[in-house]
Structures are given as C-alpha cells and as structure tokens.
Amino acid sequence: MIIDGHAHVILPVERHLALMDAAGVDRTILFGTRIHPERADNLDALEKELRVLDTVLAGDANNALDTYQRTTAELAEVVQAYPERFTGFGNLPLSLTHDEAANWIQQHVLANGFRGLGEFTLAPGQIRQLETVFELASDAGNLPLWVHTFAPLRLEDIQELITLSRRHSDVPLILGHLGGLYWRDIIRLAKENSQTYLDLSATYTVMAPLMAIRELPERTICSSDAPFGSPLVARVTVEQATESQEVRARVLGGTIAQLLRIG
C-alpha cells in the first residue's frame, strides 16, 4: 500500500482523489486546513490565501473554537465519505485548559476516528504549549503527534521539542517537513530519539530525503503536503532515493501504516 503521509483537505475532494490516482497513492493521511490555495486561479488570489497562512505561521491566527470546529467538520466529512482513501489527524486549540483539551480530543478527534493529533504550527518560543498535548496523547493511547518543524521555528525550538518528547517517549512524534533549513540537525536528533519519525514533505533539496532515508530508513515517511506539494513528485523522490525494495516499501507506506495501525 502506498500512503501519502501528510496532505491537507483539497476541495473539491474529487480533485484530491485524482491527484492520488495519478500518483498511484492508495491512501492519504489527511489534515485540516484554514486555507484552500488550490482554489486560487491567479497570483492575487493565491496571496490572499497565503496571508492567512502567514498569520498561522507567526502564531497570530484566530484561535477561536469555531475556527477549529469548522476545519474539523470539513476534515471529518471528507474522511467519512472516503474511509478507504483517507485517514484523519485532528487538531485542537492550544489555548484550552487540560480538561477542556481532554474533552476536545474525545469529541472531535477520537469520535471522528482520527488516528493522531496535528498539524501543530507554532511560532518561535511557543513549544512549551505542547506539554498538555503530549500528556493527553499519552492518555488517549499514545496518539502520534505531527508538529510543523519548518520556518519560522528555529533550531533551538526544534531542540526544545525533542527535549519535551523525551519526557513523553511513549508518544510518537512526527517531525513535519524534516526541519526545513535544519534538516541535517533534525536527522541527527531523530537518530538519537527512537520515538521520532521524519516527514519528508516540503523539503527543498533532494539531498534531504536521500540522507533521511539512508540514516533512518525505518522511521522516514513519504508525504506531499498537498496542495503545496505533489503526491507524484513525493513518490518519485522516494523511488529515486531508494535502491532496496524493502526500504522503498517502508518509506512509501509501510512505516506510517504500522504506526497508525492501518491494515
């Protein structure tokens, strides 16, 4: 089974299914989104969508509950309509109290059949906000966490994330986007921490996925970050970086299937 380990809701969903079919992808691990850049038909429209993304990356986005409820409902609708093609990850507002967050996970994550938590996108200096999430992920059966480690995070933020993860080593941590500019550092950090996994989406040089696969073939996950990336390009990148059929099968779906118990 070939699995795209990270993509966002694309509307209409038929467009996403067509991308998957063209790439030979059987299933996608799907995440909610506040924006839909795939709808933009010119640069001005795209920039309007991306301005919202900029506020998310800066940590200034609207974190009202209704925003999370809307994106969660949109995600759940797609996953429930195509359960054989999509597996969901659910997000939650980091402003919630411990008890509120626990209730949210029960009502909006587990009740929807989602298999993990994320994508968590934080501004520099905000990693400590994930402490409660790690605790609740452990309480919920060690739900995997997916954390954005590209810009604007700094290396010290990624190091703080790893330190936090060590205190909750029963919770799998997927290091999203391979750390961006810090891909060499994040590969070394992952090698030292067996609870971590490397996500290959949004890498800007083919050397990054190549080295990740060589160093950690059993904990590296192929993904596209669609609509920002292409499932086909993600698959071909892995195929070009692997000679072993066994390793290729792991990276293209075996590892994430095992992690999320996808049969």
UniProtKB/TrEMBL annotation:
It comes from the Bacteria. Residues 3-262 form the Amidohydrolase-related domain. InterPro entries: ACMSD, Amidohydro-rel, Metal_Hydrolase. Keywords: Lyase. GO terms for molecular function: carboxy-lyase activity; hydrolase activity. Gene3D superfamilies: Metal-dependent hydrolases (3.20.20.140). Pfam families: Amidohydro_2 (PF04909). The keyword Zinc does not apply. This is Amidohydrolase. The lineage of its organism: Bacteria, Bacillati, Chloroflexota, Ktedonobacteria, Ktedonobacterales.
